[in-house]
Model the fold of this input.
Amino acid sequence: DAGVIQSPRHEVTEMGQEVTLRCKPISGHNSLFWYRQTMMRGLELLIYFNNNVPIDDSGMPEDRFSAKMPNASFSTLKIQPSEPRDSAVYFCASSFRSGANVLTFGAGSRLTVL
Amino acid sequence: AQSVTQLDSQVPVFEEAPVELRCNYSSSVSVYLFWYVQYPNQGLQLLLKYLSGSTLVKGINGFEAEFNKSQTSFHLRKPSVHISDTAEYFCAAMNQAGTALIFGKGTTLSVSS
Done:
């Protein structure tokens, strides 16, 4: 299994531009999570999908952020328009929904907004 | 109060010395507890987990952790560290709804020779 695949690994963009981060979860996993990691705030849960349906998006910072999961093998996190304070590492993780979620993380997408 | 608190942001140790990374959790989370490790420029990897049963949990790379309900702690230990253990370590707990993990802010373990 190739694990959780994220792209791009690095993204540098200018303020105001649209950013799309992509994630392919592990085949067979039915839960998908987007986390954001910054020095100041650590790892924050942004949104959680179960069976492709968004269950909890209370961590999404504002309307500029949106996430979709059109099928079991693909999810996107979009920021439009991007701002410098969005600079962070964004992680996607997946798990098989059970009584105790053991998450498998992707390698992350490092976003820099100038 | 934070749901998961890692008491030390940085822990420097010498190679072959023992190490303990401290983690406390609050009543706002469940007692499904985890430790993850993050090596530079990589994602997080599961070290070990406590779900129930024996309070001493053994994980990969010689790490172990002890669940202490009375002290609401889940400290991570290794009797003898290697240079290769240098990484960021995250303690995590499942939320009460059982839907997602809440992470501590991480502890940077730096092992030098």
